[in-house]
Amino acid sequence: MLVDYHAHPLGHADREYTVEQLVRFAEQARQRNIADLGLADHDMYLDQLDLAAVAEARRLCAEVNIRLGLEVDFFPGQEDRIGQTLASLPLDYCIGSVHALDGWVFDDPREMAGYANWDIDELYAAYYSTLSQAAESRLFDIIGHLDVIKVFGYQPSGNAAAMAEVALEAISRSGLCIEINTNGRYKPAADFYPAQTILERAFQLGIPVTLSSDAHRAEDVGRDVAIAAQLAWQAGYRQIATFSARQRIMVNL
What we know:
Blueprint: E1 2-7, H1 19-31, E2 34-39, H2 51-60, E3 65-68, E4 71-73, H3 79-87, E5 95-97, E6 100-101, E7 104-105, H4 120-136, E8 142-143, H5 160-174, E9 177-181, H6 196-204, E10 209-212, H7 225-235, E11 239-244, E12 247-252
Parallel strand pairs: 1-2, 2-3, 4-5, 5-8, 8-9, 9-10
Antiparallel strand pairs: 6-7, 11-12
Helix pairs in contact: 1-2, 4-5, 5-6, 6-7
């Protein structure tokens, strides 16, 4: 079974949230044999979501299970605000992600100069420490693009999987899921999030996994998720996580 639990119909708020846009995303999912399509726009665009449009898209595209999610930027100290936001929405799941450290959005190409201010090993340590806090908050169902800190190709001097261990252990303790996010293949890192060695360690720790494209355009929905499913199998997984009404349901790969 193939799923895609990380798609952004709004992109970066460069379009409107309409039935037609959602149908385009769902139609691409159908063409790529995606059974579950998770719509997970960024929480900064929350006021643009249209639940009526989601309901209509579900009616028009009944052959695809359209799940409503949200990708939330985690910031330490804002747990109460995040919790209140999530409780107010009829979500099927929520992705918790870290995109910024101390106000620096490290995955924004316009802010690449900020890497010069960091020792890369210290940067990785700070990122995974923050990601651990996101996991330990237990606000989320999925931790997003786990090793996205490598997006521009900067790598730690040591073992990358060892650097991620603190976050993986926090995710395992908190009973959360991770995604195999295919979007990293199309970034300078040229690799899935997470790397295969990290995925194998996640399997050893009993962390469930789901599949995602991180599509910001309809044509990218489901992109490479079949390959992601193969990577999951190679790491030892025989099931993937799906979600409904904030409940995780495991299904066979």
